[in-house]
């Protein structure tokens, strides 16, 4: 019997062994069976996103039976008395009925909404984990791009879902969306006509419903499946080197199936508990959509707030006349800035590999502190997103802190430029400081707090020495980083772009090389030299990296 079949249930082993090998059943079982499943809490983030997605899909199917995606006006005569006699769309009336008349309707609606919020949060945290541990590098770059796409499609699904009830809040979101679409140069009006079908709100609710309930979930499901299949062929990146113990690595389908189903039940349980106890999106308090009104303090779903924040940060008089037409970048630019952010995030693995000329495969995860520049870039990105996100609450902040809205907005305008830079610098320095601390621990062991007194009256603290596994874990990612050399083009010239790329590459690897040298894992390089202008290939002598103060 093959080792991969040993712990399978008897029937499954027999199926795998005796079944038609040409069908691939044996290969599939053995493949799943042979994979390693780790018990690291951070691995759960991706699974929580997937499980929440399943809960959202199931609850969505329930809602589908009762929801009516029509903007035809009706007079409300449901059980919520304060709105009796109010004119509203059938979309809102059916959502009110789900909330107050269908048994369990409100619970399922709230599960659907909370599930969405948790799903997007888990997906974002999952991406951050992949980023800060370098799990996005070759050969998992495509997985990274797919994961970013999943996040973007989730946001789109959330947006198209949130507008469905056609209440005041969703009406406000649609008005802003229409404004952004119309401000697109040249094609704006046509695009708006296509989406809204004429006068606002037109058929946007019906269109959103089709996208929301059928198109986007199908796209999401396909992306999850493709990602899973790719992950299977590439196996998950690990904390390196092995560092595993018998306790945190388990082989096999049964163990995976049990933990995964258990986690699914836990996620579902928590979502139901949240839905049962915490009100979300109380449409009955907002009332029907009215393009002429917007309630104060209204805001989009938390994960879309960065777009709203970007809109608020643009100076209000940003428009100019050109070719006899008035152009308004005030709406379009923020949308571009928000979208460009995600394009850069998706392309980051390719950018980093191109800059550092890294063509190798990486199966080991890095500790964030061992790659200070990348960790700094990550924090800069988070700060950028965070400032845009916080700016969406500028009005609430102004009211709470008794400030003028202009003061708050000017503060955010300064922060959006300085924040990422400050975030980068501080994080990088912190990583370098943590590396220092790490070296102390590596050399002297971990302080135990136990002080002993020697016969001659002196005091010494006992240090616990690290075992081999701990030592390896702390050194993850510390290895030789060849100094980037500018390459000449076909004419034997070093182009300006190549020069800048090399400069940037040196900056990116300098702290890592320095940390590796100080850890004693690689040989120290001698004096720093000027950037060479000649093409050095292969094993020739390489100029040293510039050592950084204090590393
Ligand atoms: C990733 C997928 C999905 C996301 C992120 C999502 C998100 C949302 C959100 C945020 C709402 C507003 C809920 C509220 O009123 O408070 C909503 C409404 C709705 N969703 Fe989904 N949904 C997803 C998938 C689905 C699927 C697959 C279906 C149907 C098969 C569905 C059907 C509905 C319906 C009918 C509504 C309107 C009723 C209501 O607002 O309560 N959704 N969705």
What is the gist of this entry?
It is built from 18 helices and 10 strands.
Structural commentary:
With 551 residues, the chain is mainly alpha-helical. It has a domain at 46-238 and 254-285: Cytochrome Bc1 Complex, Chain C, CATH 1.20.810. 58% of the residues lie in helices and 7% in strands. It contains 18 helices and ten strands. It has helices spanning 10-18, 25-34, 44-64, 90-100, 105-132, 141-162, 168-182, 188-196, 204-234, 253-277, 283-286, 305-313, 329-355, 372-391, 394-400, 405-444, 468-474, 496-518; strands at 36-38, 73-75, 87-89, 238-239, 249-251, 320-322, 325-327, 364-365, 446-453, 459-464. Strands 1-5 form a two-stranded antiparallel sheet. Strands 2-3 form a two-stranded antiparallel ribbon. β9 (446-453) and β10 form a beta hairpin. α5 (105-132) runs antiparallel to α6 (141-162), α6 (141-162) runs antiparallel to α13 (329-355) and α12 packs across α13 (329-355). The protein is globular. The structure holds protoporphyrin IX containing FE. Protoporphyrin IX containing FE (HEM) binds next to α3, α4, α5, α6 and α9.
């Amino acid at each position: 019997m093959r080792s991969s079949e040993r712990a399978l249930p008897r029937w499954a082993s027999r199926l795998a062994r005796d079944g038609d090998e040409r069908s691939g059943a044996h290969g599939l079982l053995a493949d799943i069976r042979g994979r390693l499943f780790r018990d690291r809490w951070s691995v759960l983030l991706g699974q929580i996103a997937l499980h929440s997605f399943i809960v959202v899909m199931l609850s969505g199917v329930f809602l589908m039976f009762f929801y009516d995606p029509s903007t035809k006006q009706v007079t409300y005569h449901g059980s919520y008395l304060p709105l009796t006699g109010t004119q509203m769309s059938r979309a809102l009336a059916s959502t009110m009925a789900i909330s107050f008349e269908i048994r369990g309707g409100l619970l399922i609606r709230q599960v659907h909404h909370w599930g969405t919020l948790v799903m997007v949060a888990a997906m974002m945290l999952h991406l951050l984990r992949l980023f800060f541990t370098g799990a996005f590098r070759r050969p998992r770059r495509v997985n990274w791009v797919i994961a970013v796409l999943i996040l973007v499609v989730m946001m789109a699904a959330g947006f198209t879902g949130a507008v469905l009830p056609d209440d005041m809040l969703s009406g406000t979101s649609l008005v802003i969306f229409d404004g952004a679409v119309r401000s697109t140069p040249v094609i704006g009006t046509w695009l708006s006509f296509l989406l809204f079908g004429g006068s606002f709100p037109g058929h946007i609710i019906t269109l959103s419903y089709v996208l929301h309930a059928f198109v986007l979930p199908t796209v999401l499901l396909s992306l999850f499946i493709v990602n899973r299949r790719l992950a299977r062929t590439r196996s998950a990146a690990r904390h390196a080197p092995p560092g595993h113990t018998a306790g945190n690595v388990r082989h096999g389908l049964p163990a995976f199936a049990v933990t995964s189903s258990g986690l699914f039940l836990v996620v579902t349980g928590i979502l139901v508990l949240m839905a049962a106890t915490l009100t979300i999106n109380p449409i009955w308090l907002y009332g029907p959509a009215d393009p002429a009104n917007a309630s104060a303090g209204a805001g989009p779903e938390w994960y879309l707030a960065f777009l709203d924040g970007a809109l608020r940060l643009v100076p209000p008089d940003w428009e100019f006349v050109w070719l006899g037409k008035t152009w308004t970048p005030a709406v379009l630019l923020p949308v571009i800035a928000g979208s460009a952010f995600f394009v850069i995030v998706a392309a980051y693995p390719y950018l980093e590999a191109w800059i550092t000329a890294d063509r190798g495969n990486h199966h080991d995860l890095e500790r964030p502190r061992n790659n200070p520049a990348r960790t700094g870039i990550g924090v800069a990105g988070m700060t950028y997103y965070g400032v845009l996100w916080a700016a969406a609450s500028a009005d609430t902040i102004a009211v709470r802190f008794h400030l003028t809205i202009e003061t708050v907005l000017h503060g955010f305008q300064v922060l959006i430029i300085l924040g990422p830079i400050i975030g980068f610098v501080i994080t990088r320095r912190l990583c370098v400081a943590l590396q220092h601390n790490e070296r102390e621990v590596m050399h002297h062991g971990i302080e135990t707090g136990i002080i002993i007194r020697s016969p001659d009256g002196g005091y010494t603290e006992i240090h616990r020495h690290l075992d081999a596994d701990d030592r390896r874990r702390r050194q993850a990612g510390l290895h030789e980083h060849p100094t980037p050399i500018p390459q000449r083009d076909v004419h034997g010239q070093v182009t300006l772009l190549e020069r800048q790329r090399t400069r940037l590459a040196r900056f990116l690897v300098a702290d890592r090389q320095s940390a590796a040298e100080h850890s004693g894992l690689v040989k120290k390089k001698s004096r720093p030299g000027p950037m060479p202008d000649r093409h050095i290939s292969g094993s020739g002598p390489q100029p040293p990296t510039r050592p950084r103060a204090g590393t």
